[in-house]
Structure prediction request, 229 residues.
Amino acid sequence: MLIIADKRIPEQAKANLQQYSEVLWLETRGITEESISGHPDIFFCQTNRLLFVAPNLPEVYKKTLSDKNIHFVEGSKSVGSAYPAVAAYNVVVTKKHIIHRTDITEQSILNDCSYLQQINVRQGFARCSLLPLNDNHFITSDEGIYKTLVAEGLTVLQVSAREIILPGQSYGFFGGACGVYENKIFIIGSLAHYPGGEKVISFVSNLGYEIIELYNGPLFDGGSIMFIG
Prediction:
């Protein structure tokens, strides 16, 4: 298994994450805005069958994936310098749904997920804003996504984004501070420092998840932690 994470997450979180598997530390320059330039969910999208990467992902990372025999597909849309062109790969895919602002979604992702229920939301940063869990359960820090998913009959916990750190921005997103692998939810930060943390713990514990807090500090939006393979 290969983990992909932003190189700029807190040092203690980096050290703890590396205990679970090899980590590909992502950083880019001159492609998009600095605050999200190392975010995996800006350059990668995992569907149920494929790993999609932006064509302007630096070649060194494509080579690393190839060297590790990790199959990937390059999309047709490059990550842009500003919203919404920066968010074409920031898509949530579950076993039943694809959730995104579909007018900006990379077309090859839509094609691959044509068998899933498509849920269109107004937030292009869907993956940053939304953490998908088992059995049609979700956690989101975006009110619009919350209302849309609840209207679809899905179970959603709405949380605050205001206390989540994203350097260079006023605040970050809950999904961007997390990653899920099997029955573990990895959080860049501690829920003890997060208003509503107890609600999050109760919500995910009832679904059978174990929480792994990667450092003892405020939640930090690193653009999601991705687990490949």
